[in-house]
TrEMBL record:
Catalyzes two reactions in de novo purine nucleotide biosynthesis. Catalyzes the breakdown of 5-aminoimidazole- (N-succinylocarboxamide) ribotide (SAICAR or 2-[5-amino-1-(5-phospho-beta-D-ribosyl)imidazole-4-carboxamido]succinate) to 5-aminoimidazole-4-carboxamide ribotide (AICAR or 5-amino-1-(5-phospho-beta-D-ribosyl)imidazole-4-carboxamide) and fumarate, and of adenylosuccinate (ADS or N(6)-(1,2-dicarboxyethyl)-AMP) to adenosine monophosphate (AMP) and fumarate. InterPro entries: Fumarase/histidase_N (IPR024083), Fumarate_lyase_CS (IPR020557), Fumarate_lyase_fam (IPR000362), Fumarate_lyase_N (IPR022761), L-Aspartase-like (IPR008948), Pur_lyase (IPR004769), PurB_bact (IPR047136), PurB_C (IPR013539). The keyword Lyase applies. Pfam families: ASL_C (PF08328), Lyase_1 (PF00206). It catalyses: (2S)-2-[5-amino-1-(5-phospho-beta-D-ribosyl)imidazole-4-carboxamido]succinate = 5-amino-1-(5-phospho-beta-D-ribosyl)imidazole-4-carboxamide + fumarate; N(6)-(1,2-dicarboxyethyl)-AMP = fumarate + AMP. This is Adenylosuccinate lyase. GO terms for cellular component: cytosol. Belongs to the lyase 1 family. Adenylosuccinate lyase subfamily. It comes from Buchnera aphidicola (Aphis nerii).
Length: 457
């Protein structure tokens, strides 16, 4: 079926088709089939490696080569064949098993041992490992590289803007100044913590039969240590073995991963909103592109649409992931199927995140700092120095220091002249008066610069 991008229901497969290509190569139905086929083939090869126990004879390199090529040369036509079989079986994994048996039927020696395909497996043995491999690939190949790009860009900007003073706003009101670099550093540090958390989360898998007890395995081969075989098989795939489950791997690790991604996204929403605000305050100018239009009727506009797009898609992603966090670890008794359709939307949830990451990066790369505006706003807010002055007054035990500065500044227009006059009349050493008069809204930034230097070594 040839589907135009303009006819796709989801913007993931339509408007944002190019941005989600990397995830499409993992979470599409075609690739989901391929991952599951990989698990089936690897399990069959694990059985072949135990050929003496299973009394399998005369398997040679050509046979293994043939088996490997089924996966290596897996085509869209193969996938369609499996889906056609599924129409008859109404069961996706059974269709996959029959597809493999059909392939083996072309090779006499393999046809004789084809009953070892899907041997002692429940469907979830195959599915949970396939999902684990998919999630691992998505994390390692897509998410972590994108997160790294975002974090490194923020680190670069934190260093670049470490000396650029900024009027802070607490409760939306003027507050003790910082620097733009230090404010970006705050996001860099928060996001980097989640990066290392995501990297360390164990991706679990199980391989223990219909209710997690190796019932069928032991019925057929009671002398084999199936618990050990399961561990060997799962860990050979670079996954962490879950030794104790029901029919399903309980998906706790998926909830952990999505919790981490969701928090990363929430921090990024915070960033998007802050920078949307900084653009509105004209602290940043957006690079204009001649052919782009900001408004269909107002020619002057350059809208911060990348940050808005990022915020919206992060919200969608988090909504889906938060549902999965609450849903996936819950299963009625030993298994119910309500997780199946939810799991199939992992790629959708992650796609909205990926779209958002690209939008955020696109937005921040268009920004130019507006030093003039930042300095102008600082010079309009000399009242923020009241904190410094009253703290020095407290040092010299001047009574009601806070109240005196409150009376001077609260709700009033304050400038350099007002501040310096007040300082001159203070009963403190002259050296302190001179030091206080050297403080301006621009240089009253505390350790902001040093913190950036220390945190970005």
């Amino acid at each position: 079926m040839n589907l135009s991008l303009l006819k796709a229901i989801s913007p993931i497969d339509g408007r944002y088709f190019k941005l989600t290509k990397s995830l499409r190569n993992i979470f599409s139905e075609f690739h989901f089939l391929k991952y599951r086929l990989q698990v089936e083939i690897l399990w069959f090869k694990k059985i072949l490696s135990m050929h003496e126990i299973f009394k399998i004879q005369n398997i040679e390199n050509d046979d293994i080569f043939f088996i490997d090529n089924i996966l290596k040369n897996f085509t869209l036509e193969d996938a369609i064949q499996i889906k056609n079989i599924e129409k008859q079986t109404n069961h996706d994994i059974k269709a996959l098993e029959y597809f493999l048996k059909y392939k083996f039927s072309k090779f006499k020696k393999l046809d004789l041992i084809s009953e070892f395909i899907h041997f002692s497996c429940t469907s979830e043995d195959i599915n949970n490992i396939a999902y684990a491999l998919m999630i691992k690939d998505a994390r390692d190949q897509v998410l972590l590289p994108l997160w790294s790009e975002i974090i490194n860009f923020l680190k670069k900007d934190a260093i670049q803007y470490k000396n650029i003073s900024l009027l802070s706003m607490t409760h939306g009101q003027p507050a003790s100044p910082s620097t733009m670099g230090k404010e970006i550093l705050n996001f860099y540090y928060r996001l980097e913590r989640q990066f290392f958390k995501l990297k360390k989360i164990d991706i679990l898998a199980k391989f223990n039969g219909s209710t997690g007890n190796y019932n069928a395995h032991l019925a057929a081969y009671p002398t084999i240590n199936w618990h050990l075989v399961s561990k060997e098989f799962v860990t050979s795939l670079n996954l962490v073995w879950n030794p104790c489950t029901t029919q399903i791997e309980p998906h706790d690790y998926i909830a952990e991963i999505f919790g981490c991604i969701s928090l990363f996204n929430t921090i990024l929403i915070d960033f998007n909103r802050d920078f949307w605000g900084y653009i509105s305050l004209n602290y940043f100018k957006q690079i204009s592109i001649d052919n782009e239009v900001g408004s269909s009727v107002m020619p002057h506009k350059i809208n911060p649409i990348d940050f808005e797009n990022s915020e919206g898609n992060l919200g969608l992603s988090n909504a889906l992931m938060n549902h999965m966090i609450n849903k996936l670890p819950i299963s009625r008794w030993q298994r119910d199927l309500s997780d199946s359709t939810v799991l199939r939307n992992i790629g959708v949830a992650l796609s909205y995140s990926v779209i958002a990451y690209y939008s955020m990066l696109n937005g921040i790369k268009k920004l130019q700092i507006n030093n003039f505006q930042l300095l102008k706003i600082l010079n309009e807010n000399w009242s923020v120095l009241s904190e410094a002055i009253q703290t020095v007054m407290r040092r010299y035990n001047i009574k009601n220091s806070y109240e005196k500065l409150k009376k001077l500044t609260r709700g009033k227009e304050i400038n350099k002249i007002n501040i310096h006059k007040f300082i001159s009349n203070l009963d403190i050493p002259e050296v302190e008066k001179k030091r206080l008069k050297k403080i301006t809204p621009e240089n009253y930034i505390g350790y902001a610069v040093q913190i950036v230097k220390e945190m970005t070594k």
